[in-house]
Amino acid sequence: SKKDEKDNLTAVLYGIEDLRLEQRPIPKIADDEVLLKMDCVGICGSDVHYLVHGRIGDFVLTKPMIIGHEASGIVAKVGKKVKHLVVGDRVACEPGVPCRYCNYCKAGQYNLCLGMIFCATPPYDGNLTRYYKHAADFCYKLPDHMTMEEGALLEPLSCGVHACRRAGVRLGSKVLVLGAGPIGLVTLAAAQAMGAVQVMITDLVQQRLDVAKKLGATHTLLIDKDDCAEDLAKKVREIMGVEPDKAIDCCGAESTTRLSVFATRSGGCVVIVGMGGAESKVPLINALVREVDIRGVFRYCNDYPAALALVASGKVNVKRLITHHFDITETAKAFETARHGHGGAIKVMIHVQPRDTNN
Ligand code: NAD
Ligand code: ZN
């Protein structure tokens, strides 16, 4: 209806503890863009962090910003140059659009592009809004049997795929994942799909380990913040029966990074995904004399297609991560739930449209 076509209710973060719903104009698209009628937007830890702290490292909120970046939507308009999408297509939206011209972009490492425009990373707007425009080539058409919720979850899943690719997870790998938050859980799922035969996961919270178990973790370990990393490494080896050849730190606390290094077998690989303090105490000589590689991860790069294929083929079930559903009009409540982990919240999903029929 005419009313629908003007309603562009949008969640805008004005500053710390100041998230508002307001009307915004519907964006006009360029020739290489599409207009999306947004459907699902998941809440990520970083969205909550901007709400509570107004910054993440050097990314500082200095003006109002639309929140949200784990999203799916339906194509409502296509630019003249767009060939692969038509109006009505259901798509997942990869939230970071790089410059496409720099050496990183040309070399295929576009996640490292300094000109990256990433949804809800200041100063760029996100997509928790009814109408949002996006670069068409960063929209991926979903098969009919995939839900819009799954489309939105391709964002965190891509992080998991990228982390496993960086770690070199392959057939027969024995993987230790540290932290069973949404990122640890998608990393677990990706590792299994990529052929890992054992995936052990640790957390401070038993309920999160229970979810990990349901997702197929072969071993879980409940740990305490103050446990000694070297003792825990021994425990990991005892429980797994071998030393893991990969450790993926999806927490980023000093204690998890230390455990990652101590637990990994000589010649193995440690991947750091979680962002803890800017500096931390890591047993570098231990890593060096045992040729344990330590690698970083920044978001993802060319990983959306694999994440989509994993879900479409049924190899990965991301739906289990969603614990709560809210309508966009309940955005404040959704953020409260995500922030305080009410009701064992893991992934909180915001629906901009009525819930998809094939959920
Ligand atoms: P989260 O806070 O929900 O999950 C972290 C989990 O680690 C929690 O379940 C917590 O209980 C657990 N934990 C805390 N201390 C622990 C310890 N000592 N040992 C074991 N587990 C412990 O966050 P998330 O959304 O899953 O994200 C995880 C991390 O990944 C965050 O730091 C986030 O900023 C980062 N991240 C990085 C990238 C990247 O590109 N590098 C991308 C996405 C997220
Ligand atoms: Zn670039």
CATH architecture of the largest domain: Alpha-Beta Complex
How many DSSP H or I helices?
A: 11
CATH superfamily of the largest domain: Medium-chain alcohol dehydrogenases, catalytic domain
The average pLDDT value, as a whole number, equals 96
Outline: globular
Describe the protein in words.
With 359 residues, the protein is α/β, with parallel strands linked by helices. The chain folds into two domains: 2-141 and 318-351, Medium-chain alcohol dehydrogenases, catalytic domain (Quinone Oxidoreductase, Chain A, domain 1), CATH 3.90.180.10; 159-296, Rossmann fold (3-Layer(aba) Sandwich), CATH 3.40.50.720. Helix content is 30%, strand content 26%. It has eleven helices and 20 strands. The strands form five sheets. Strands 3, 7, 8, 11, 12, 19 and 20 form a seven-stranded mixed β-sheet that branches. A six-stranded parallel β-sheet has the order 15-14-13-16-17-18, with helices on both faces. It is globular and about 65 Å long. It starts with a helix and ends in an 8-residue tail after the last strand. Bound molecules: nicotinamide-adenine-dinucleotide (NAD) and zinc ion.
